[in-house]
Amino acid sequence: MADFWFVSAPLPGHLDWGGLLRTAQALRARGHRVSWLSGPQVERALTRAGLDFIPLKETGWLWPPPPLPDVSQLPPQEAVMLRYRRALDTWLSVDQVGAAAEELIERGRNGDAPDMIVADPFLSAAALAAEALDLPLVVGGWPAQAELDEERLLAVQKTLGADSRARLQQLLERFALQGLNFSRGPTPSVLSPLLHLCFFTEDWYAEERGSLLPQNAYVGGAPATPEEDPPHWLTAIPADAPLALITLGTTFTGDLGFFSWAAQAAARLNLVPIVVIGWHPLPPERKAELIEALPARARLLNWVDFHHVLPRARLAIHHGGMGTTHAVLVHGVPQLVVPHAADQRAQARRVSQAKVGLNLTAHDVRNGALFTGARALLNDTQVQQRARDLATEMAGGGGPQRASGLLLDALARSQAS
């Protein structure tokens, strides 16, 4: 029996990445010991999934980030720099990452060390702890890529790259490490020399094909069978009524205009809008405004099981989070993606390049493109067929079950070397 630590930021989206949580469950079903280490915010989700949960005082992930100041009066380059630096502060704050790494290292040295650490792609502390404890590291949900060419970087990327290298160097010196689990290019990132699990097909990353490294494994995925019966609100909707899933995931839930515009567009096309706004508290007056702006047929919810809703959906309108994009893909549903930040822009581009949906900007949304885009997708039989074909390709990758086997193979290789 092998012992695995899965380590993630304390956000629901960081449990997923297209199949990371289900991979942990698959390992457990094979008889291995699996512990998930994160902040207490995700304890309920993990214990509900049947995994052993170990709470961390610090994960190294800064959340929530400081409020974004008004950037409307800043020169564009300064505004971009501010956004990039906030992103860097989120995953590579020297103090927080150092404290988290120290906690993980201490736990491992006190006799509780696993055989392998599987990390969220942005958990720098896990990468440091794996090296300090001389344990193999696997990155879940993000492909390993070759180093960027510094000459092709924008000025802001060069500046932030230098800052991130300096921060990483401070952490390496603090723990007397070489940085074996980080890329060494101009913009450092967590990089496993052993294995990166990618819950998509290799073709999904066609834009980056030339930079993909050989330790990537592309396992795709398939719809999960829900463990519980469908909720009453869903069974109350007539079975022949097509649905539209509308969500911004768990982080960017304050964009209430998006929810109302998307729901109105879906309703005009005779779809029942399923509007999912997450658990972030809304002031009563703002929630009342949103309810007033939604069409009568809409359902407003904090959370849904995608695997209950998506089999009945004809369209998804969302932000491009990796877990949401993956769930929509494996169900073969066309999608409209309005990215809000970070990797969502790349997911939106891939949706468009794969011809399974549309990539819209905030400007497009303000100019009515949610309705015209949704109508186009509902009338385009080629997009609908391509979405179904891609779902079949994704299922052929083996998903979390294959991923769990690859982890065991990687562990065997590391122990033999």
Could you explain the architecture of this structure?
The chain has 417 residues and is an alpha/beta fold. It folds into two domains: 3-221 and 397-416, Rossmann fold, CATH 3.40.50.2000; 232-395, Glycogen Phosphorylase B (Rossmann fold, 3-Layer(aba) Sandwich), CATH 3.40.50. It has 16 helices and 13 strands. The protein has helices at 20-29, 43-48, 76-91, 94-112, 124-132, 155-175, 232-235, 256-268, 284-293, 306-309, 322-330, 344-353, 362-366, 369-379, 381-395, 399-416, and strands at residues 3-7, 33-38, 52-55, 116-119, 137-140, 195-198, 216-218, 243-247, 272-276, 299-301, 313-318, 335-337, 357-359. It has a seven-stranded parallel sheet. Strand 1 (3-7), helix 1 and strand 2 (33-38) form a beta-alpha-beta unit. Helix 1 crosses helix 16 (399-416), helix 3 packs parallel to helix 6 and helix 4 (94-112) crosses helix 5 (124-132). The longest helix has 21 residues, at 155-175. 41% of the residues are buried.
Relative strand content: 5-15%
Summarize the amount of helix as a percent range: 40-55%
What name is given to the CATH topology of the largest domain? Answer: Rossmann fold
Q: Distance between termini?
A: 19 Å
CATH-defined architecture of the largest domain: 3-Layer(aba) Sandwich
What is the tally of helical segments?
Answer: 16
Q: Any key phrases for this structure?
A:
13% strand; six-stranded parallel beta sheet; Rossmann fold; alpha/beta; single chain; seven-stranded parallel beta sheet; 13 strands; 417 residues
